[in-house]
Write a structure and sequence with these properties.
The protein is α/β, with parallel strands linked by helices and about 400 residues long. Helix content is about 40%, strand content about 20%. The strands form two sheets. A seven-stranded parallel beta sheet has the order 3-2-1-4-5-6-7, with helices on both faces. A six-stranded parallel beta sheet has the order 10-9-8-11-12-13, with helices on both faces. Helix 7 (about 220-235) packs across helix 12 and helix 10 crosses helix 13 (about 355-370).
Length: about 400
């Protein structure tokens, strides 16, 4: 079987690049897989993809982020490669920060249908559960309603895929009830490869608060840094660091620079910039707590799974969607009131004062990360793909 993945892929900085990397890697060596193609976005220098080249997998940059012509470029490449099936790793901003290119790219599952190529989409978010104003998509009620309607129409095109997997049970319910979709399943997020366990040093006076991802829309680091200042006063004997691990969200360019200006008086705030895949482990291992400074969520959190893989305790906002995901997938953490620095500081303090509870959460998260390895998830995909292929015989 020749299998094509349409996904961002490291060192591309497009959201879901790490998930696309780990998911596609899990298919290498699986029985019946003859060839794996990664159809990813062009970089300024496509030779950078060679750093992630692997036997059994061919990386093919063939579309541009923020281009209006992505679906046409993908159509041309799929006709040329003629894969037996396509797996699409998608969220609503996969193909662009601009609304039009992002929307046009999401016609790709429908295009696969027109080419008669079996397709499976893993859809990481749906518009019905995202607060559009907080992710930079709508700054008024009128725009919000317009983009919700557009999102509904795009969802219908995505549902043209043979199978659509979503990572949260609530999403299955919404898509089945609202869109009368019969091709939607709960497809677990899966866990990245478990590294060797690296424990938080006991008795250390250094506390590193770390937030990971793309910042500026629904993920803002101010609440973490402000909480750190509160904690410094509460625990003068401890050394605190806030690590902002990542880059600007494409919709809010300049956000990290604005943080640097605002907190220039604090020497203990670190900004890592983009973190290549091979350095992710070090960032998590150097953290004491993984902070989730979210004001809303956009689906199942890959960072939650990474925190579990590295055995770290999470400090989480009280957001219904996120609490549901954490509970359903067996993770744990200390909770704070959304966008409330004092509440976040209190959540961290509760685990500083009770290290046994912190260690219990670390163990719980590491155990949850063992739940469904990507290798097993790949078998789920292959089982569904074989069913689709047999139905066409």
């Amino acid at each position: 079987m020749k299998l094509a993945f349409i996904t961002p892929y490291p060192p591309s900085q497009v959201t879901l690049n790490e998930y696309g990397y780990h998911l596609s890697q899990s298919f290498i060596g699986k029985k019946g897989i003859e060839k794996i193609y990664i159809l990813t976005n062009n970089l300024e220098d496509n030779s950078q993809y060679s750093r992630y080249a692997t036997d059994g997998l061919e990386i093919i940059p063939c579309w541009d982020f923020d281009s209006w012509f992505t679906v046409l470029n993908l159509k041309k490449k799929l006709k040329e490669l003629a894969p037996d099936a396509v797996i699409l790793n998608l969220q609503f901003m996969t193909f662009g920060a601009g609304k039009i290119p992002a929307a046009l790219g999401l016609l790709t599952p429908w295009m696969c249908k027109k080419l008669n190529i079996p397709s499976v989409v893993i859809l990481h978010n749906i518009t019905e559960t995202v607060k559009l104003d907080t992710i930079g998509m709508a700054d008024s009620k009128l725009k919000g309603n317009l983009f919700l309607w557009i999102g509904e129409q795009l969802t219908k095109f995505i549902l043209k895929a043979d199978l659509v997997g979503v990572t949260i049970s609530q999403y299955v319910t919404i898509l089945k009830e609202k869109y009368k979709a019969e091709n939607v399943i709960l497809l677990p997020h899966g866990n990245f490869e478990l590294p060797e366990r690296n424990y938080v040093p006991e008795g250390s006076n250094k506390i590193n608060l770390m937030a990971f991802g793309k910042f500026g829309t629904y993920k803002k680091a101010e609440v973490m840094i402000d909480a750190m200042e509160i904690l410094q006063k509460k625990y003068p004997e401890l050394e605190f660091t806030s690590t902002v691990a990542g880059t600007d969200n494409p919709n809010v360019k300049g956000y990290i620079d604005s943080l640097k200006n605002k907190y220039a008086h604090l020497p203990n705030v670190e900004y890592t910039g983009y973190i290549p895949e091979e350095k992710v482990s070090q960032i998590f291992w150097e953290s004491t707590f993984v902070i989730f400074p979210y004001t809303t969520t956009t689906g199942s959190s890959g960072i939650l799974h990474q925190a579990g893989s590295y055995g770290r305790a999470c400090i989480l906002p009280k957001i219904d969607d996120l609490e549901r995901v954490v509970d359903e997938e067996g993770y744990g953490g200390a909770y704070f009131e959304t966008d409330d620095a004092a509440s976040l500081a209190q959540a961290v303090a509760s685990l500083i004062d009770n290290p046994e509870e912190r260690k219990k959460i670390e163990d719980q998260n590491y155990k949850a990360a063992k739940g469904l390895p990507m290798g097993e998830l790949a078998q789920w995909y292959l089982s569904h793909i074989h069913t689709l292929l047999n139905q066409r015989k």
